[in-house]
Description:
Elements: H1 3-30, H2 39-62, H3 66-72, H4 74-81, H5 105-135, H6 146-157, H7 170-210
Helix pairs in contact: 1-2, 1-5, 2-4, 5-6, 5-7
Amino acid sequence: MTLSRWQQLIEWPMVAAAVVFTALYAWVVIANLQPPADAIPRLILAIIWLIFAAEYIVCIVLARPRGEWFRTHLMNLAAVLVPILRPLLLLRLLRLIPSLRPEVGSAVRSRFAIYAVATSVLLMFMGALAVLDAEQNAPKANITGFGDAAWWVAVTVASVGYGDYYPVTASGRWVAVGLMLGGLALLGTVAATLSSWLIDRVRSRHGGTEQ
Length: 211
């Protein structure tokens, strides 16, 4: 079996697995399930993670050349190592929207803008779940509800950092580092896209004036 054939076969099952993983993880965290009530949900999450890992291993085995596939699919590896990143791979479904398929002109910038917005929403949602999972039961924690977590994520990604909420656990701080890096990357992408649009507008207006 070829890699492309394998990916066609598993695309929608993996989409379903990612959706179930996201919904189940959100329920476990927001409901703050404690042992033994969380045993079955966390077992299901672990099984889905094993499915993610198995899918990645099969892709590596089928890929030709493997080194190139590995280098160009680092996000897939990250989604296995850090399962909460898996929903970000759902953004690949945006390519099914006909208006996002063209690769020229303003269509490219429109696609980038939509990807940036979708990535921001997913990153902030999963970041809020991750920090809430790490913090809500920790001693002296001040992030104890999803609203607090969402607010903290928003100001962290925006690099504002009011300081009214902050993580007190090591895992919560690692989530903060990831969000800061992700926020900087998104801001850079948005700035580059906006700059490209402005340059094209200036060139277009200048060209029209010359004519």
